[in-house]
Amino acid sequence: GIMMDLSPDDVGYICMPLFHSNALMVGWAPALVVGASVGLARKFSASRWISDVRNYGSTYFNYTGKPLAYLLSTPEKSDDADNTMRVAFGNEGSPEVVNSFAQRFGVDVIDAYGATEGGIAVNSDREERPGALGQVEDFIKVVSEDGEPLPRAQFDANGRLMNAQDCVGEIVNTNGAGPFEGYYNNDVANERTLRFGWYWTGDLGYLDEDSYLYFAGRNADWLRVDGENFPAQPIETALSHHPDVVLAPVYGVPDHQAGDQVMAGLVLRDGADFNLSEFSTWLLSLDDIGPKWRPRYLRLLNDPPTTGTNKIIKRTLVHQKWRLDRVEQDQVFVWDDDAYRPFAAADESALRDSFIRNQREQFYDL
To answer: Is the pTM value of this prediction over 0.70?
Structure first.
């Protein structure tokens, strides 16, 4: 509530799901602390947002993921800024989206970086260093899988990251996890997240020479789509049930606006006669794969990168993503309406343009 300068006179607008820490800790808890009121919506609706805000007289709201972008996609009206909303607090808004939203609706946007577990928090400082999450203390580091600090990022004259392969690693808090004690009944997750007594975020990032931290996506085994985090394993298991599929590594690739999109690589059985239309229909029939979990992109892996123990190297797949200049001769497909179709050079060109418009070109280049 302090960052939003809330008082008992404020009215919150909570349209994010209450099972998520964003709604609880940014929407509801500040109101409880200062004695403010809140208006509750059953779910987020871009078309209803402005009318709800005016109806409730809301002065602040919380978001996670793409709500700001969805709101900007609604038809612009001359009176959009004629509302009571004063401040928005959330995460994953690109600089372009944050600035456009603030200007159109007359709202001060605080887009910050943190973790549900409370193990890390970085105050936004994008005016000082565009594209960065903020400047961090020495105990926030970017490290390799073995915990070794990585080199600082180097940029060219146009601000493009030059040494992504060397400087991108996992963001960790070497002071520990703070109040976070661990995950209930999940020793495997605890061991991974609390190694060396540090807090491992599962997020990838890089640091510049002035200790400004930049976000570079999720760890390959976790994905974040539309503000929701989920593991890749259940999707991999479901896809592997298809009779033509031997392995189905699932990983996150950058979305042009915020967060990730789901991408799956398919290693087919020898002699399989893969039918794209049939596979699309089969995927729609799966009860355990909802819209957010359905892979946006597919790649048929002819020669997947593997370790000496035949484990697929996901970090290589993440780097290659849907880049046609990186996937060798593999076919790439994109979900379009209700089926997959080939992902062509024109699709990649349009996607790159969208990354540039949203000031997220670095995610395309990583």
So the answer is: no
